[in-house]
Design goal:
The complex is a heterodimer. Chain A is an alpha/beta fold. Chain A has two domains: about 270 residues, Aldolase class I (TIM Barrel, Alpha-Beta Barrel); about 60 residues, no CATH class. Chain A contains 16 helices and 17 strands. In chain A, the strands form four sheets. In chain A, strands 9-10-8-7-6-5-4-1-11 form a nine-stranded mixed beta sheet, with helices on both faces. A three-stranded antiparallel beta sheet of chain A has the order 12-13-14, with helices on one face. A three-stranded antiparallel beta sheet of chain A has the order 15-17-16. In chain A, helix 2 runs parallel beside helix 3 and helix 2 crosses helix 11. Chain A starts with a strand and ends with a helix. By secondary structure, chain B is an alpha+beta fold. Chain B has an eight-stranded antiparallel beta sheet with strand order 10-9-15-6-7-14-11-12. In chain B, strands 20, 21, 22, 23, 24 and 25 form a six-stranded antiparallel beta sheet that branches. The termini of chain B are far apart. The chains are: A alpha/beta, B alpha+beta.
Chain lengths: ~400, ~600
């Protein structure tokens, strides 16, 4: 049976972070009562969506179409705001609809100080076996600039409580190149991160995304982007220090304490494997007829999502909750496979590529693309041998322009 | 019966934003020529480019039929005029075809510099000027003050001026009546010798060149042999007709009428604006006054961009040329850009328009090089060479001296800007001839200035420094000896001839610095450092460096949403397509125009 990943978007936050452009609605704007009531309606709608997908792709599907889930990921928003009862209902629906493989990776994103030890223990009990904690920084000044609701002590406490609750696979999210963050402050954060002995670290350089408060401040001149040189120095230094403690970088922004702790769910995105996304703004990629990919994603609106998936049991079809449905061409699949694949330090396995697409990678591109890629290789930005092509760390720093060769 | 009694030939003159085109639309609508449903916004501006810039570049004329309150049917010929300094001559010829002009003044803004320039052109042609106050519907309209201003500044009686809103259709009926009443009917002699003015021409695939004409005396019909008196060319008339605004054939065009003539004419340069048409068999003795042979003042290279075919560019240039007497081109080559064309224009705006039309109408990717004027190079052996391409400048030891074209520039500005504009002119090596107060608040400055300084960015600077109120007119007066030098640009030590320009010695350092700074902003980072240098001969006078790239990465590719990242990469790839490779350095196409743009912060 084919495997797939399942992503579940929990679109609720206590407050919107000023740099974040992921879809969520916040208590700070809507009020606690409204969010709480919306959340319970949302869980019902979510279950309807999962149920319908189970009939199409899971246990309810015809033998040839059946998939089992080997990864499950709760992202957001702030999934740790779910009540254990709510999570229980969602997980039950997933298990009813899909076979979960033994040893399936079940991750949840968690913001420090949004879940008590008791709640964490309940999550663990329900089957969550990987926790991704949004630490972002261990400097309270930086956390304040980021508009986070927690301080560094909260993060330390949450990690400890998570351990006590039985989590053995913990990831910490970090951000750098933040206005006001010096290289010293960043080094301190790196040190404190390592001291908590996580199994996995994600490190993102701050991006000014369209429509965020940060971008508005940038445009008004109230905020400045970190110089490229300083940004990359922070990145490279952190990777060195993580490496010295046994972490292996396996993707542009991710490192794991040994390959066993690589986030298998996220690897599906970068390997162009199948995944289903549930909840508003969640994206799916499924392989359809002729082996061509199909992408679809849900509306970025809880209200519209609820409209699409509420109603009498069995009558909702969710059609109105889908915003885009698009069929990939062979060229789309090839280019997406390459530019996501080049995010991985292992790069693209040439044999695997041939197996999936029937031809060698260079048969899809003109001699000019190959020549340019070789120039990057000569400059130390990329590497190629008989088995794979990949980017070096130097190349990852400027990966967009190399990936752009293939789109 | 005197048919001329029922004809009114007029133009609308206005400052750029004062609503000329909207008013033309309303007149067309009210006279029932076009149904409201078929109206495209701003009917007369028939090029998208013009609509976008909100200015009329190429004119289009149209005939309206109006049933007046006096019970008679009148023929209105509305002759549109272009609105920019490069086209003053065309404006003057269009006005010469009229008996009157409707002067549109924005009642919220009052009289403006450009209005004034156009009024003077109209007065030169002895037109009856009918002032009209527009935008009367706006709360900020101040009709009484505006009327006073018209009287005081222009010296026209504005007490009877119709108050209208072209946008809302207010007062249009009154205006139409005023046109009947105030603008004189033509009074030519239909039985005299043919004397007709070419005020526009355009190329049509089926008919050949269509001459737009105003008949002053005599008549013309199909089969007549006409003579164009200045170019001395003869053609057999294949069709005459009226502009509605599309050509509608008629039997004859008579004195006082406006219409078109076709005669299997192959290019518009054979039927020049301002020329006089007469009958070959019975010619008039005198030509109409005001004819000028249009001369290209500004030259630049136009090259196919990466991936664009030379032939496509050539075809497009040929098509533009048949329709534009002021534009011409010939093949040339550049070491950096390969095969291309040296093109001549009236001025910088004309050049920009041609380039934009190549890009939009013909969907071509082209690169334009620094514009240049024609230098007169007197060599040590006594021979003289006219140089329009900096790369063709003889070596310094062969040159005795160089002369550059000087123009007389007339600049009209509100008085509060006198200081900053004088400073600007001085910076552009201008010599103040004199200055006059046209009204207590409006000043005209008369300068002698090297054309070289005018074409770079002078007009942009003037507009910018006067918040759009300055206007400029210039004409060539003479060549004058000058210390000009050729400045080259080197990218990663390689000379890129397409960037070479001729500059005055005193400006070379500043220009060199400016070009290097601009290129630094525009040239993307490469794998390696890219030095940018400006040099005169072997001597480097300015230098900047583009650092090697360091960061170009999407940190977060997460939640399975890769469509946005893909779009970003696609955009990046698109940008790369617009790059031109020079040796090892990639240069975006816009670099060529960016080094010429006026920079406010400078």
């Amino acid at each position: 049976m084919k495997n797939l990943g399942i992503y579940i978007h929990i679109p609720f936050c206590l407050r919107k972070c000023p740099y974040c452009d992921f879809y969520s609605v916040a208590e700070a704007q809507m009020g606690k009562a409204e969010i709480s009531s919306m959340k319970s309606r949302f869980v019902k709608a979510l279950c309807s969506e999962i149920e319908a997908a189970g009939i199409k792709y899971g246990k309810g599907a015809q033998a040839g179409d059946q998939r089992q889930a080997d990864t499950l990921y709760f992202g957001g928003g702030t999934p740790s705001l779910l009540e254990p009862e709510e999570l229980k209902a969602v997980l039950k629906t997933v298990r009813n609809g899909f076979c979960l493989t033994e040893g399936a990776e079940i991750s949840m994103e968690c913001n420090p100080a949004t879940a008590s030890q008791e709640k964490l223990a309940a999550f663990r009990e329900l089957g969550i076996n990987r926790l991704s904690i949004g630490a972002q920084s261990f400097d309270d000044g930086v956390l304040k600039i980021l508009g986070r609701l927690h301080n560094s002590a909260d993060t330390v406490r949450t990690v400890k409580e998570a351990r006590k609750a039985g989590f053995e696979n913990i990831s910490l999210d970090l951000m750098f190149a933040i206005p006001g963050q010096t290289e010293e402050i960043w080094e301190e954060t790196v040190k404190k991160t390592l001291a908590l002995k996580p199994q996995h670290i994600s490190l993102y350089s701050l991006e000014f995304m369209e429509g965020t408060a940060f971008t508005a401040r940038l445009e008004k001149g109230e905020m400045r982007e970190t110089e490229a040189e300083a940004d990359r120095a922070m990145y490279e230094k952190a990777l060195d220090q993580f490496g010295a403690q046994g972490f292996v970088q396996y993707e542009i922004s991710n490192a794991a304490l040994g390959r066993a702790h690589i986030c298998r769910h996220n690897m599906k995105y970068w390997g162009l494997e199948e995944y289903l996304g549930f909840g508003p703004s969640a994206h799916s990629y499924m392989i359809g007829e002729g082996g061509r990919g199909v992408r679809f994603y849900n509306v970025s609106s809880v209200e519209k999502y609820l409209e699409g998936w509420s109603g009498e049991a069995g009558t909702a079809d969710g059609v109105s909750a889908v915003e885009i449905f698009s069929q990939n061409s062979l060229a789309d699949d090839v280019c997406e496979y390459i530019f996501t694949g080049l995010r991985k330090t292992d790069g693209i396995d040439l044999k695997g590529f041939r197996k999936r697409f029937g031809k060698d990678i260079w048969e899809f591109y003109g001699a000019d693309v190959r020549k340019e890629f070789e120039e990057y290789a000569e400059g130390g930005f990329a590497a190629e041998n008989d088995d794979n092509i990949r980017l070096t760390v130097k190349g990852m720093n400027v990966s967009n322009r190399i990936m752009a060769l293939f789109v | 019966m005197d048919y001329q009694k029922y004809i009114r030939n007029f133009s609308i003159i206005a400052h750029i934003d004062h609503g000329k085109s909207t008013l033309a639309d309303r007149l067309i609508e009210k006279t029932g020529l076009v149904s409201q449903r078929d109206m495209k916004e701003q009917f007369l501006d028939n090029m998208d480019l013009e609509r976008e810039r909100g200015i009329t570049i190429k004119l289009q004329t149209t005939r309206l039929v109006y049933n007046s309150q006096d019970g008679n049917e009148y023929i209105f010929n509305l002759i549109d005029t272009p609105g920019h300094v490069d086209f003053t001559y065309e404006v003057s010829r269009s006005l010469a075809a009229c008996e009157g002009a409707v002067l549109v003044v924005d009642a919220t803004q009052g009289v403006e510099a450009q209005t004034l320039a156009n009024v003077y052109l109209a007065l030169d042609e002895n037109l009856e000027i009918l002032p009209v106050l527009n935008k009367i519907d706006l709360a900020s309209a101040r009709p009484d003050e505006t009327k006073e201003e018209i009287e005081e500044v222009i010296g026209l009686d504005a007490s009877e001026a119709p108050l209208i809103s072209a946008k809302e259709g207010i007062g249009i009926e009154e205006l139409l009546e005023a046109i009947v009443k105030d603008i004189p009917a033509p009074s030519g002699n239909p039985d005299g010798k043919l004397k007709a003015l070419i005020f526009d021409s355009k190329y049509d695939n089926y008919k050949g060149v269509i001459i737009y004409t105003r008949i002053f005396d005599g008549q013309v019909k199909k089969g007549d042999i006409i003579r164009l008196m200045n170019t001395k060319k003869k053609y057999e008339v294949t069709e005459v007709g009226i502009c509605a605004p599309n050509p509608v054939p008629t039997d004859i065009l008579k004195a006082g009428e406006v219409g078109y003539i076709c005669g299997s004419i192959k290019q518009v340069s054979d039927a020049r604006v301002g020329d006089t048409i007469t009958l070959d068999s019975n010619p008039t003795e005198e030509t109409l006054p005001g004819y000028k042979k249009v001369q290209s003042m500004v030259y630049c290279g136009i090259y196919p961009a990466e991936g664009e075919k030379y032939e496509n560019v050539k075809d497009a240039l040929e098509k533009l040329q048949v329709n534009d007497a002021a534009f011409h081109f010939e093949p040339e080559t550049s070491t950096a850009l390969g095969f291309g064309f040296r093109c001549g224009f009236l001025g910088l705006l004309h050049m920009e328009i041609i380039v934009e039309r190549l890009e939009r109408e013909f969907n071509l990717a082209v690169i334009t090089t620094s514009p240049s004027v024609i230098y007169k190079v007197v060599k040590t052996d006594g021979t003289v060479e006219m140089i329009q391409n900096p790369s063709n400048l003889p070596s310094p030891q062969e040159i005795d001296h160089i002369e550059e074209p000087i123009v007389k520039a007339d600049i009209m500005i509100p008085n509060e800007y006198v200081g900053s504009i004088m400073e600007l002119c001085q910076d552009r090596r201008g010599k103040l001839l004199h200055m006059e107060y046209i009204t207590p608040t409006r000043v005209q400055l008369h300068y002698e200035m090297p054309l070289n300084e005018v074409i770079y960015d002078f007009f942009d600077a003037l507009k910018s420094k006067t918040r759009g109120y300055g206007s400029l007119d210039y004409e060539f007066i003479r060549y004058e000896k000058s210390n000009v030098v050729k400045m080259d640009v080197l990218l990663n030590k390689d000379l890129v001839d397409a960037f070479s320009m001729i500059v005055h010695e005193s400006k070379a350092y500043a220009r060199g610095r400016f070009v290097c700074e601009k290129l630094k902003e525009i040239i993307p980072m490469h794998q390696f450092e890219v030095p940018i240098q400006a040099a005169i001969g072997q001597k480097v006078i300015a230098r900047e460096t583009v650092k090697a790239f360091r960061k170009d990465v999407i940190a977060k590719c997460y939640g399975g949403d890769i469509s946005r990242k893909k779009k970003l990469l696609e955009k990046q790839k698109e940008g790369k397509k617009r790059m031109r490779q020079f040796g090892t350095v990639e240069v975006p196409q816009e670099a060529f125009t960016a080094v010429l743009k006026y920079d406010d912060n400078k």
